[in-house]
Amino acid sequence: xxxxxxxxxxxxxxxxxxxxxxxxxxxxxxxxxxxxxxxxxxxxxxxxxxxxxxxxxxxxxxxxxxxxxxxxxxxxxxxxxxxxxxxxxxxxxxxxxxxxxxxxxxxxxxxxxxxxxxxxxxxxxxxxxxxxxxxxxxxxxxxxxxxxxxxxxxxxxxxxxxxxxxxxxxxxxxxxxxxxxxxxxxxxxxxxxxxxxxxxxxxxxxx
Length: 207
Known about the structure:
Number of domains: 1
Distance between the termini: 52 Å
Number of helices: 6
Helix content: 25-40%
Mean pLDDT: 79
CATH topology: Yope Regulator, Chain: A
Low-confidence stretches: 4-21
Shape: globular
Strand content: 15-25%
Strand order of the largest sheet: 2-3-4-5-7-6
Structural class: alpha+beta
Order of helices and strands: HEHEEEEHEEEHHH
Radius of gyration: 20 Å
């Protein structure tokens, strides 16, 4: 076998061994990609900065969440996304701990004023699709709807944490509930101060 043929076969083997990146799939994520994905999903997106970090607020018909990139190092392409939301209802520490012990994608912390902050962190290393970015937003909004309903229904006994998994049908329902249909989309000109506070505090300590 000639030297040139060996080089050709070696190069071909390297190319074949490389994973094929599907369209719309990113290895890590940029702020522009996150913004574009949520906007394309018919959520109303506005952007801001906290401590020099780009953040966004995504508003659906029922809920507004905040999001920013994490584990960026010196690059604009980051390894993860953190999504945050707050509940206007007060939760007990017992309930929050019960929620967090289960295998939920979302977690609850109570801040120093007792506000319930719900967070979801998405790992984007190795490939993340635009739909993953959207579904994490919708999943958080869906959890907020669940918790609000449970607070209303829980009159005689403490509420039980919702199911640990988010089904495909639940995410489809969340998309139908939260997505705006047709322009113009109302702009979230008055973001909940509690959400702004939660995002700012989380952004200050995030990697």
